[in-house]
């Protein structure tokens, strides 16, 4: 479990060990991150309907209480007031900001694709060949220096050759090898194919390349889906609480209605079907047309990994109620518990016998999360199944209007996370260690 | 003048020379790109109101007639039917797709920022130092090879050192040098400062860093402005015809009203103030609240460069009618006529004595256009002046909801186009030649 994926996730610690954690909205209470009042609080700020459900007055949220810089000032001024001495930023949704280095292989490929002429430059090749010549020459290097040099260069070249090969393959997917040109709105065809192949290999079920739509990160994809699904303030989207603010913001922006459902803390933040049914019926009784259910697995901010049985019941519920499943699966590579395993909703639904035509399912993935955490690179994709050809066409048109084409560096990274170095590849060892 | 900046720009040629050009919507007519019927046609497909103004029935637009792939098939099947033998794609808005290589300095910096550890790697430094040692050693290289090698390496290193220095400066702007982390929604602070400084140096008037908002290309910025300005179908935006489809699409997406105004072909596609006045009054008489005027300078797709006098009159008109000026200035570096010069609307309005408070002006710029043409990198920015602090705050909030933060590679490129190598820099010579 990874409890700090919330955008607001900060932890306050006393030197020498963790003494307790604080969620930003509750800076002055001793409440744990996912307390009941936290849930009520989020419900309150997210939608009027949720607010109406809450009967307990939540603590005030102001710039002063929500901004960690203010907390730092308060801490400096009144250190005795707080049960900790230091604020530790630990937002696992933005790991590079905390000093986590990027994955070398990914960045090597990206650097080579950013400046493809390196691959073809005479001097680069001469440099490498020359190094070999020099290493073999007794005239310039002492024995120890030759050994050291050879080892270092071999290690460097071994990894780098792999990155060069991959970069070459990727560049060949672009007309004129031009990563500076527009791709089509769906994303570069060959990269979509690489992603489809990665999904098929992950799930053990086929993936159609036409179902892939590359985006500038998952947030861009989620916003686009909300644009497509929400026509009026009577259109509702079910979202899990504790809530990832991307969803409340995207629904609010489109003028839709957020229908909350509450995760069950006592059973490891699982999704309780009677709770889904109750919230759906409540919303319908208010005249809301519920169109889709957002399910975040692994959870954000709760960090749970849903069981297969729970996932199957969710699929059945959505099928019964004709809801689109919006499966936020961006943390699929962040599984830390040995007895847990990620299963995509696509895999679960296919294993239940549903094919693409009888269940509308969108799976979101992103280069921003996972161990790679490339938040600044804005790469991601959706796999859209069970939509009509017309709906898919509208979706692609919307992508073009929204952003012409997703940024190419993000597209390349998206293809890499779905096809990382494999056992036996020259770069696998260092990739695995990282 | 550059007539083919339209997204639809294709040209059909007979071997041995240009025989005529075709615009995609008129594949089967012999109409020139910017004929009157072309204008009517675009008016018709853009807004119902414009359609109502048109009395001539336009040619049918179908997938078969608008898609150059279909044209190619038709051409293959019925070559005698067409007055040309070959379709030549010449969209100057996407030059890398036509084989134009990227600017080396930009891509070197980008590659180094994509994989910053290259800057610090022992082996990189050793490699370079070692090269020098080897060059000095008579034992390994023949005389001619040493001379050639030295020349080549010096050239390479001279340029590359400059790129390494710039990459180092840029990386220092990021906490933990992490280009993989989120920046804030406005864009990385130091890059905004670099852009503000570039604008100030271009215009000769100060630029406030808080007025800069980095975006994923200009299309993303335009869409965001439309989101902010359009509240209902009665809100109108004035747009020049011939039209860049980004505007019609963005206005349609927000459910606003496109108010067309027609450029005057006889005076080099200038903007005629009586025409602006007429179209504004027509729209107002239909109950439309006209909020802003889009002006594209240099023109897209018309390629004209507005005269200073014309720009001053446009500023006066917008001031008088309280219209926001949305100045699309993405082609500011594409001036090919010797007697033409680009002047930003910011510079013109400041030289007229308007300060930031008395005129609402948004200037769009992008790494996608210009001689750099980095369409796939999705970098751009807006300079927003004359908006209230509340409006700016809403704008920033919208940016975060729309895309969290603009992609970092695009941000870096945006800072580079506003601060390219200068005369005297080691990389200037090769940059200038390119």
Polypeptide structure, described:
- The structure is a homodimer of 434-residue chains.
- Chain A is an alpha/beta fold and 434 residues long.
- The first copy, chain A, has 3 domains: 82 residues, no CATH class; 74 residues; 235 residues, Aspartate Aminotransferase, domain 2.
- Helix content of chain A is 44%, strand content 12%.
- Chain A contains 17 helices and 9 strands.
- In chain A, the strands form 2 sheets. Chain A has a 7-stranded mixed beta sheet, sandwiched between helices.
- In chain A, β4, α11 and β5 form a beta-alpha-beta unit.
- In chain A, α5 packs across α8, α7 packs antiparallel against α8 and α9 packs parallel to α16.
- The longest helix of chain A has 29 residues.
- Chain A is globular and about 60 Å long.
- Chain A starts with 9 loop residues before the first strand and ends with a helix.
- The N terminus of chain A is likely disordered.
- Chains A and B meet through α5, α7, α8, α10 and α11 of A and α5, α7, α8, α10 and α11 of B.
Secondary structure: elements and pairs:
The structure is a homodimer of 434-residue chains.
Chain A: E1 10-13, H1 36-46, H2 48-53, H3 63-66, H4 68-77, E2 86-89, H5 104-114, H6 117-120, H7 122-136, H8 143-171, H9 189-203, E3 212-215, H10 218-229, E4 235-241, H11 245-253, E5 257-262, H12 273-285, E6 289-296, H13 308-321, E7 324-328, H14 345-351, E8 361-366, E9 380-385, H15 389-403, H16 408-418, H17 428-433
Parallel strand pairs in A: 4-5, 4-6, 6-7, 7-8
Antiparallel strand pairs in A: 1-2, 3-9, 8-9
Helix pairs in contact in A: 5-8, 5-16, 7-8, 9-16, 10-11
């Amino acid at each position: 479990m990874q409890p700090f994926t919330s955008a607001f996730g900060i932890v306050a610690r006393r030197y020498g060990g963790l003494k307790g954690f604080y969620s930003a909205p509750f800076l002055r209470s001793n409440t744990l991150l996912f307390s009941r009042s936290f849930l009520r609080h989020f419900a309150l700020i997210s939608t009027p309907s949720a607010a109406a459900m809450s009967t307990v007055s939540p603590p005030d949220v102001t710039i002063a209480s929500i901004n960690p810089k203010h907390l730092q000032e308060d801490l400096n001024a009144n250190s005795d007031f707080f049960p900790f001495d230091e604020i530790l930023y630990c937002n696992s949704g933005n790991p590079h900001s905390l000093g986590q280095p990027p994955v070398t292989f990914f960045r090597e490929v990206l650097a080579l694709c950013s400046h493809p002429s390196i691959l073809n430059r005479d001097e680069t090749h001469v440099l490498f060949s020359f190094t070999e010549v020099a290493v073999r020459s007794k005239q310039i290097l002492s024995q120890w220096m030759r050994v050291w040099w050879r080892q270092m260069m071999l290690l460097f070249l071994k990894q780098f050759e792999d990155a060069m090969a991959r970069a070459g393959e990727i560049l060949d997917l672009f007309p004129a090898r031009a990563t500076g040109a527009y791709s089509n709105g769906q994303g570069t065809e060959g990269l979509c194919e690489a992603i489809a192949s990665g999904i098929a290999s992950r799930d053990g079920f086929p993936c159609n390349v036409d179902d892939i739509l590359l985006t500038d990160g998952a947030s861009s994809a989620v916003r686009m889906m909300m644009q497509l699904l929400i026509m009026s303030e009577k259109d509702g989207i079910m979202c899990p609480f504790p809530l990832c603010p991307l969803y409340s913001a995207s629904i609010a922006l489109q003028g839709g209605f957020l229908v909350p459902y509450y995760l069950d803390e006592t059973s490891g933040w699982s999704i309780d079907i009677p709770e889904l049914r109750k919230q759906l019926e409540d919303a319908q009784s208010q005249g809301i047309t519920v169109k889709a259910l957002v399910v975040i697995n692994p959870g954000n901010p709760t960090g749970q990994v849903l069981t297969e049985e729970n996932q199957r019941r969710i699929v059945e519920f959505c099928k019964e109620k004709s809801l689109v499943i919006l499966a936020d699966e961006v943390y699929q590579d962040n599984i830390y518990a040995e007895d847990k395993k990620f299963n995509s909703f696509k895999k679960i639904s296919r294993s239940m016998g549903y094919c693409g035509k009888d269940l509308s399912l969108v799976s979101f993935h992103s280069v921003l999360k996972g161990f790679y955490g490339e938040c600044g690179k804005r790469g991601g994709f959706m796999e859209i199944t069970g939509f009509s050809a017309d709906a898919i066409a509208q979706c692609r048109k919307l992508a073009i209007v929204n952003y012409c084409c997703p940024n190419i560096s993000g597209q390349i990274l998206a293809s890499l996370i779905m096809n990382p170095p494999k056992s036996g590849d020259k770069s696998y060892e260092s990739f695995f260690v990282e």
